[in-house]
Specification:
Layout (H helix, E strand, L loop, with lengths): L18 H12 L5 H8 L3 H13 L19 E8 L7 H6 L4 E6 L6 E7 L2 H12 L3 E6 L12 H4 L6
Antiparallel strand pairs: 1-3, 1-4, 2-3
């Protein structure tokens, strides 16, 4: 006899944003070096008020950091590849191995037929093959080389998505 238990769905607490915080985050996503004064002029606040809002967003974990956007092609890594790895479920060490490959710029565990989707930057197809040899120890893979990016990585427009608004 089977016993059905109620499914518990873990709901993450959502940080509620007002329109000013949404606009502030949209500006920072485009230019994280924008001064508090300039942000304030654009959203109608004083620089100290902007600083306080940013501090609160950092404290709440909404803003997790600021970073430079690097052009990897300019540094000799012209090939962006997407690798779909099919490692056995529950295999230990796969995440660590992926994390230790310096050319991996993003890796996600996914649902479906693959276990991971990995994005990496390499210098050449030979370099890609060397990277794949490391991953093949963990499972089979399917690899695509990106030929163009009609929508490159970009910030999400929070105002247009009603982010942080209870619906």
């Amino acid at each position: 006899m089977f016993m059905f238990l109620p499914l518990t769905i873990r709901k993450m607490a959502m940080f509620e944003l007002d329109d000013i915080n949404r606009d502030l985050l949209d500006l920072l996503q485009v230019d994280g070096r924008m001064s508090y004064r300039e942000i304030g002029e654009r959203i109608g606040l004083t620089a100290p008020a902007v600083a306080e809002r940013i501090r609160k967003l950092e404290d709440a974990g909404v803003i997790r950091g600021f970073r430079a956007v690097v052009d990897y092609e300019a540094l000799g890594f012209p090939i962006l590849c997407v690798i779909r790895l099919n490692a056995p479920r529950g295999a230990s060490g796969v995440d660590d191995k992926i994390r230790d490959i310096p050319n991996v710029i993003e890796a996600n565990r996914v649902t479906g037929s693959e276990s991971h989707v990995i994005r990496a930057r390499v210098r050449s197809t030979q370099h890609l093959e060397e990277l794949l040899h490391e991953l093949w120890e963990e499972g089979d893979s399917t690899t695509n080389i990106v030929t163009s990016s009609p929508v490159p990585r970009r910030p999400m427009n929070l105002a247009a998505t009603d982010a942080g608004r209870v619906v």
